[in-house]
Amino acid sequence: MDAAALSAALRRQIRGEVRFDPGSRALYATDGSNYRQVPIGVVLPRDVDDVIATVAMAREFGAPILCRGGGTSLAGQCCNVAVVLDFSKYMAEILEIDPARRIARVQPGVILDHLRAAAERHHLTFGPDPATHSRCTLGGMIGNNSCGVHSLMAGKTDENVDALEILTYDGLRIKVGQTNDEELDRITREDSRCGQIYAGLKSLQNRYGDLVRQRYPNIPRRVSGYNLNQLLPENGFHIARALVGSEGTCVTVLEATCRLVESPPERALLVIAYPDIYECADRMPDIMAHKPIGLEGVDRLLVDYTRRKGLNSEGLALLPQGGGWLLAEFGADTQAECESQARKLMDFLGRSSNPPQMRLFTDKAQVRRVWEVRESALGATSHVPGEPLEWEGWEDSAVAPEKLGSYLRELHTLMAGYGYRSALYGHFGHGCVHMRINFDLQSTVGIANFRKFVEEAADLVVGYGGSLSGEHGDGQSRAELLPKMFGPELVQAFRAFKALWDPQWKMNPGKIVEPYKLDENLRLGADYRPWEPRTHFHFREDHGSLADATLRCVGVGKCRQYDGGVMCPSFRVTREEEHSPRGRAHLLWEMTQGEVIEGGWCDEHVKQSLDLCLACKGCKSDCPVGVDVATYKAEFLSHYYQGRARPRSAYAFGNIDIWARLASNAPGVVNLTTQLPFLRDIAKLVAGIPPQRNIPAFAPQTFREWFRRRPPRNGGPPVLLWPDTFNNYFLPDTARAAVEVLEAGGFQVFLPADNLCCGRPLYDWGMLDRAKKLLLQILDVLDLEIEEKIPVVVLEPSCAAVFRDEVLNLFPHDERAQALSRQTFLLSEFLERKARHFDLPKLKAKALIHGHCHQKSIMKMSDEEAVLRRMGIDFRAPAQGCCGMAGSFGFERDKYETSTAIGELELLPAVRKADPECLIIADGFSCREQIAQCTDRHALHLAEIIQMALSGERPTAYPELQRMRQQEAVVRDSMTRAALGLTGVAAAGALLWAIGRRRTS
Ligand SMILES: Cc1cc2nc3c(=O)[nH]c(=O)nc-3n(C[C@H](O)[C@H](O)[C@H](O)COP(=O)(O)OP(=O)(O)OC[C@H]3O[C@@H](n4cnc5c(N)ncnc54)[C@H](O)[C@@H]3O)c2cc1C
Ligand code: SF4
To answer: What gap in Å lies between CA 196 and CA 611, rounded to an integer?
Structure first.
């Protein structure tokens, strides 16, 4: 098949995007499963016409088609050697919500949470809610027949779909739904492709109806196999529902009419703890009789893994004592009603012979925290430190809820025989169990065991009358096992069903029917030998391997967050897979394979995908498997630029410490060139700064200079204040305020003997050789302080993050690095942990606080918030994510639009809306610049807020204004003096020149 010709033809035919380059193909080579198949190319259709044209072109070239939404599938049904149609970027419109008929019409790329939010305005919801609700699409849910916690009240996706508009590979576009006899009769008599399909379906009904009734398990979670049961007369010959769960193997869904259900406005969550998970499972019938709207189970190992990964600590703390937990949610119109339902269950269980521990939650924040423990289960059980890798493979089997306890006991015995173990959780109310098992997928023996185990597990679940898949679908993981569950005749019926829709066998081939083997196309496999280049960072938790580090991404897709949240700012504004941590991790991993991404460290596709990463470290903290793109980016760029010049801004910003030190010799003169019209435009051009940005002015006197000149103060325990480049050269008032605060707390402040820099800006440009040199210099110069365990207080969070994070990854075996990391504190951390005796001054004020991304990710905001609470400040934090400036990112010419778009997501509008009296607090230099440059407000550092309180100042309108005016005035004075000086020098020069000329003439 001539892929280049197909790509060219598509480009001519459609309005959407056509991407057949190696980068895009590598990006879409896997989903959330164990499998990898590199697609032919990727198309992002803008509308239905684009989809029709793409399928027509694919037909002409004989290329298979794979539809894709969020790509979060867990059984390999969303990767294939095909033309991928990604609906998530453009075809994501809610077309209609009709609250009276309780239906919604949607395009396939609509994100579930967007539909739920729109429906919620009418107190309605779309019932099935996978844990991926923030990024999974309706098309993908229809493809997989997705379920979720609230399938308990609303059923699976098939039960919530009324009609589908579909397109077949051979170009038939029709709307299908429930079909009455008269209609069926009429259509089957038509001499058309549509008539042929309906007649074929009717004949399947006649031929296999009884067998379907006999062999389809009568359990709530039968997701395996095609939904031939929906063609039965008693189910209304519902063609749309029969297509739900067909995993893109039959048709492309162009539009869906979905059913909405009432969403109970009030909820209560009862957490029930038993000594083990089996007892939890045994209680299903009793608990289900009390009609919860959600009933989930989690086991001890999941809680242990979550704790070890430092995730959801608040949620974990809320769980009652036990070894297995059930989360039973009750919903009703009033809170009292929910509580009363929950209490009835509590009374009932309390009277049993072995009453469980129970806690009832009604506070929404607490309820959210507990649910997070369950929702992040998949991520929490992947890449647990010290544990072998765990994989899907037997991830979502289901049995009748009343048989769950016995099934789990037998399943665990089977696993133990193979030496396997896994945390366990799932939709217990529906008898569906999730687990990721420590299969060895890297050796011949390991893979043989994997196959043997799943075959035996399939026998086990079939023996229980259950389903191989109770939620995630068959894809490639289970398709080969379908004959065990359905028998050969029904598998033949599946073949016939697919052939009716897709006689050429081009829709997502090799999945569900005529499948690839479950141990084919593995991402790893017995011959897995990734490229293992030498790296600057040690990647300690990943066995020192970049390949292992990037393999972390198991496709959870939490980084494809559209609203709120910490990650990923660049995905949020671009909505592009390549600009998500998942995409970046996948591309880097592909680089270690060298098959599609062949350029190694010089590969432009990888470079392009990392280009918009703001290195905010949001993914490091928020990705459940700890993908750390900022570090991978620094590593990649350090090699990419080996032997070639970096952009001008890299030298301007990466080495800002050098320029700032030079500028401090004549700050007034430098400010003339960076602040005066015309001159500043030239300066921006030279440094690669966009014209819309202002270059921050240098302070006339550095903080170090001020500190050196002031009279020595003795007494109190010593504290080393870190004079970072930004607060030393640009905002010395902040560092002075910190000195005042620390001295008021009874400490003796001193500075490092030498002019040092942590090298933070160097990481953004991969200048790691110099970054390492600077860190070694710091370790040498601070040798004594480190040995004497003197606390190092750092005001700039991104610099503190270097001492807490990068230094450990670069020098994991250097004791001094470990000690420095332990001794480093932000001001708030120091005040909370080492200066609790200091009675912080009170300040009656409201504040809007914005945490620097590195603080949120590495140090966390809890101490900062505790300090503000102690001071009596009424604060709120409107933006969880990045400000968009992120070091020098927002100062780069080609990043300006992205930078401001990120700022405009939440932070900047919130600052503009804040009351004039409201304090704006931000400790990060770049966050302060973004706020100052994009709003009419200036943010103050925590040190300045405490200083304000110490001096008894009360915030009035624009409380920062007086400080800013003072700062501006000193800068202006220095410029005036410099200008006068320069004029004087010029005048003297001119005079001397004139005298010289007269003498010679
Ligand atoms: C961390 C995690 C937790 C999960 N939790 C749950 C859960 O609680 N419940 C649950 O049910 N699932 C869960 N899943 C599985 C998955 O998220 C769901 O199945 C989800 O609905 C898939 O949506 P998607 O948009 O990512 O689909 P994709 O993976 O993109 O696609 C899914 C299938 O649908 C097909 N498809 C997509 N669009 C179309 C279209 N327009 N026409 C025809 N076919 C199409 C694809 O070809 C594919 O076969 C989880 C997955 C992960 C990674
Ligand atoms: S560091 Fe921030 S911007 Fe970069 S990939 Fe991670 S979340 Fe996205």
So the answer is: 52
In angstroms, rounded to a whole number, what is the distance separating the alpha carbons of residues 377 and 374?
5
Atom index in ligand 1 nearest the CA of residue 73 equals 29
- Give the span between the Cα atoms of 306 and 459, in whole angstroms: 31
In degrees rounded to 5, what are phi and psi of residue 876?
-140, 155
Q: How far is the CA of 157 from the centre of ligand 1 (A)?
A: 11
Strand partners, 270: 328, 360
Q: How far is the CA of 131 from the centre of ligand 1 (A)?
A: 10
| Own/partner long-range contacts of 565-568 (Cβ < 8 Å, ≥24 apart) | 565/134, 565/622, 565/880, 565/881, 566/618, 566/621, 566/622, 566/853, 566/856, 566/857, 566/880, 566/881, 567/616, 567/618, 567/619, 567/622, 567/623, 567/881, 568/618, 568/619
339: phi > 0 → left, psi -120 to 50 → alpha, else beta; which?
alpha
- Can you give the pLDDT at residue 991? 86
Joined together, the tokens standing for residue 191 give: 């001499």
- 947 φ, ψ (degrees, to nearest 5): -60, -40
- The predicted pLDDT at position 310 comes to 84
Q: Indicate the pLDDT class of residue 331, thresholds 50, 70 and 90.
A: very high
What pTM was estimated for this model as a whole? 0.95
| Residue 76 CA, ligand 1 centroid: distance in Å | 10
- 3-state per-residue secondary structure call for 373-406: HHHCHHHHCCCCCCCCCCECCCCCCECCHHHHHH
Q: Is 401 in the pocket of ligand 1 (CB under 6 A)?
A: no
Task: Tell whether ligand 1 has an atom less than 6 A from the beta carbon of residue 161.
Answer: no
Specify the DSSP element, H or E, that contains 94: strand 94-98
Q: Name the token pair of 372.
A: 């997070």
Query: Rounded to whole angstroms, how far apart are CA atoms 957 and 104?
Result: 47
User: Ligand 1 center to residue 28 CA distance, Å?
Assistant: 14
> CA nearest 112: which of 585, 560, 568?
560
Q: Which residue has the tokens 């095609």?
A: 226
| pLDDT tens-digit series, residues 851-877 | 999 999 999 999 999 999 999 999 999
> Cβ(70) to ligand 1 under 6 A?
yes
State the amino acid at position 471 in one-letter form. E
Give yes or no for residue 185 having a pLDDT over 90: yes
